[in-house]
# Entry
Amino acid sequence: MNILFIPNPMPAHLIPLLSLAKTLDVNRFNSAFLVPKGFHYDIEKNGFQHLGIDRKGEDKLMPEISAISTFDPDVIVDDLNYFSYFSSRLFNIPRVSVVRKGILPFESYNPAFRHSSDVIDYFTSLGEIEFDDSVIEKPKSISDLFRGKINIIPSIKSIETLPEELSTDSSYVYSGPLLLSDEDMIGSHFSQEMLQSAKKFIEQNSDKKLVYVDLGLFQPDIILNRIEKCFEILFDQPDIAILTNSTKYKCKNESEEQRLFVSDFLPNNLVYSNVDLAIHKCGSGTYNYQVNYQVFSIVLGSNCYDRDEIAMRLETLGVSKYISPNLEDDEYYQLFEESVLKSLNETSNEKKERRNALASIKEEILVTQNEFDFEKILKSTRKKTIRI
# Structure
């Protein structure tokens, strides 16, 4: 059975698809990936084919058509790739989509928030295009662009809860976190040398409280405009050492230099399994590392409903503290400092409550992962015949 995986060309959306592909029996499933040339090494390293096609950022649909013509897939599996709406219909190929809060039908959200991707701009641009509905029906909503025959939510019910209208819709399936090991990520993301350097930094600072400031690949200005002061607040605590993928902060003295490790990409499994506190923006999949490794977090809001709505849910569950970007500076920094100090200096009762909350989520993750069957999902997309 030929499976064509097409991520939005970003690491955060490639990782879940690689994770899914690795669960398949290679004797019965032939997997290929359509990705930018910069990711071809990662695909090869993980044992899959890339078809020699470069899916460039400015041209997504034509490479997709070329890949389908070359590979002849039985199923398309995508993650936040709105072009699969068109290609799957043009070629009449079943589509399985990885979806998240923010692109689900029937969702309600704060009208002051926006989506973190360019999907709204793209959907708006479609309004200016005439469609021949006899060939492809024009998408009526943003959620239409991403909805597949089966839709995989890489989370658990208690965090990314479905709207009531979808609560009994069997086409939506939870998989639990879809992650990769750090070794699987070595390549265009980070080197073996960097992995060893991060390990050494963690070992050298084992007597300190380790904090991970994880702002992801694309770091919103609404966060960056305040992050320098946040770093200063962290460094005011002499027992804190920091790992981060943000290059915004410049150390002010030798002590800070010794307590700071910076890299554009960091081995998330290594880091999250060793830190005492995570500070992140709740980007795609980020919180899954936090809950998987039972780490409390502070989420810096960005007014993106696909991030901030989840951050507020994590706060309700007792495993995170959400800081709204709409606070005045003084209130923002005060709340940040209070949240850092409280999380790193918990009372025994607070620590017990936090551990219980994280343990409950971890248990739900394990149950969800055990019930998820990707091969069964792929087979269910076929009408009668399956090529194996």
Remarks:
- The domain at 191-366 is CATH 3.40.50.2000 (Rossmann fold).
- DSSP finds 16 helices and twelve strands in the chain.
